[in-house]
Each structure stands twice: as structure tokens, then as C-alpha cells.
Amino acid sequence: GNMEDLERLSKEDVKLLLFDGQQQRSSATSTTSIRDQLKTYVHEFISILEERYDSSFDPSTSYRPQAQSPSLITIMRFVRGEKYDVEKGVIRYLKYEKWLKEKGCDTIIDQPDPKEEFYKNMTPHLYYGLDKQNRPMYWERSGIIRVPEVLKQVTEEDLQLRHIYHMQRVLQSFEGYSKELGKVVHKFAVVCDLKGLSFKPSPSAMKALKDTLSMDSEYYPETLGTFYIINVPWIFKPIWAIIRPWLDPITKEKFKLFSSSAMNEFVAEIGSSNVPEEYGGTAQFQIPQKQFYSLADNCDVVVENGTQNISTALASTSISMKTQNSNSADDNDDVEDNDDDNVDDDFHSGGMLV
What we know:
Layout: H1 2-8, H2 11-19, H3 34-54, H4 59-62, H5 72-81, H6 86-102, H7 116-122, E1 125-130, E2 136-140, H8 147-150, H9 156-181, E3 188-193, E4 197-198, H10 203-219, E5 224-230, H11 236-243, E6 255-258, H12 263-270, E7 291-292, E8 302-303, E9 308-309, H13 310-316
Helix pairs in contact: 1-3, 2-3, 3-6, 5-6, 10-13
């Protein structure tokens, strides 16, 4: 059904899937329509996929059942992620599908996470709304999340599975919103609130962040639209300097920082009606507050205030999809993004811990 779906796409959606805002490739000539180009990529991807899938050793146990029928959005994520080398895109896609199978994630979003209440309370977050570009939004109070505290009750493997759950939920939302809106939705936006950060980096949080960045870079290409970090304090700069060398150079302009004094610029970019009142918008939703939750006895939750270290918060934002660091939107010197630091600016985002 991919070819039939392709025929129904508007010209704008065809461009979005083919180029995603990138400069059109040299193969785009006056005699080759962009729709024909997209058809060529999709047809080649499906042909190579069928050949490789059928020759795989016992594919029924190597891949998820749906691996044989990727959507247009999925196909073009992997094609663009491999710079239009379709064969490499197929290889990467099958590696992703095999990885999900090996992780036991065939149906990870088909049933509730048994630790949902724990993550809901200990890592306050919310999937809510769309931005101006119709991208689903994920909100998180990263500044008050303590990863070492979280790791007292769950394992690193649990956090990896939670990240996969998050990313698969995001991918599922693309298909749902595309059908609902009647247009292609293939990227999402993240908002991380750093209010409450303190100085001392946490080794466990830094490791969780680095591991997640690696996971997203390998298995979730071309998924993140923009990653917003808001309420960024001046103490963030040295931690940012540690993280920047890990980042994907492709995603630089998708990573945007706003100090507390620049929140009006953040609201203007997202749209006032899409931002909750606490951040200066007019939307009536609220992001949950952090509360203590015990998995051992499911005791009554107790509201907990306080700060956490910077790297802990960032690790909780185990970010999907590719994102980048763009220039800070500060009105003062609270946040400074210096392109002369001789390190890569880019941050591959795409899947918070939650």
C-alpha cells in the first residue's frame, strides 16, 4: 500500500518526505518530478528489503512481523539517514528491527509499562500537543529528576527499555497524527526544563545520557525536529562543554537553548497557544510535578522539591531522533553558545528516559 499512499500525498508532503527541508539533490531535474524521485527511492528500498529479508536466516525469529512492511515515513527516515544510499538504509533498517526483536520489544507499546507510575512520578513528563509545525511535543521537568535516585529502584537495562518504549510511542504518534491531520507528521519536538539544576555532575547520569545518545544515533535516525532546553542557567555551560563532543554534527540547528530571561522567544517559536501558562503561554495543560514513588511497596507518593545535578537531568532526557545545538536565545550572558570551541555542536536527541 506504500505506492497507493504515495499517490495521495500532496506536493508539500512529498517534498517533506524526500528532502525534509534540505536542499534538493542534484538528481532533481526538470524532467524528473519529485514524486517520481520519491517513488524510485521507495521502490528500491522495498525491492532490496524483500531480497535481504527472504535470504535472512529464519527471518520469522530474527525480526518483528511488521518488519516486512515499513511505512513511507519509516522508509524515508532510513534513506535520508544514510544520505540517500538506499542499500545502506535497508541494512540499517533491518539492524534496527533485529535489535528490537532481540530486546524483546516486539509489542512493547501494546501493553502498559508495569513501571509506569514510577516513571510518571520520579521523572515528571507529559506527551501533549503539537507545535506550529504540527510536530508532537514531549515535555519534561528534567531539572528536578535525579537519575542516581531512579537507579536505586530500576536497572540500567530498565532505563534502556523505557527509552525504547518512549521512542516507539513517538514513532507510533507519527502515523496516528498523519492520518488525523491528513498530512505527513514525521518529526517530534522535545522541551526540557532545566529549572532546579545544581553543579555536581553525576557519573551514572552522564553514562546514561551517553548510552542513550548512541542508541538514538544508531537506531532512530531522522526523528527529532527540535530539542528545546529552557530555563538554562549559567552553570550549564561547563556541562554543555562536556557533552558537545559526543554530539552528532548533522543536528546542530535543531538544538535550541533559552535562558529564563528569553522565555518570550521560546513562546514565540512554539506558539503561545501551545505553551502552558507557567512558561508564558496560554495553554491550559500542566506538566506533572516530581513525587517520590516506591516500587517496592507502592507507598503513597510524597511531593518532593529540590534540585539535582545538571548531568542527571540531561540523562533523563535520553534524547530520539537527531537534534542539534543552535545559538542560544539569551537576552544576556546566562547562556552562551560559542562556535569557536572546536567541538561538534550537534546533539542527537530522540528519546527521553521516559
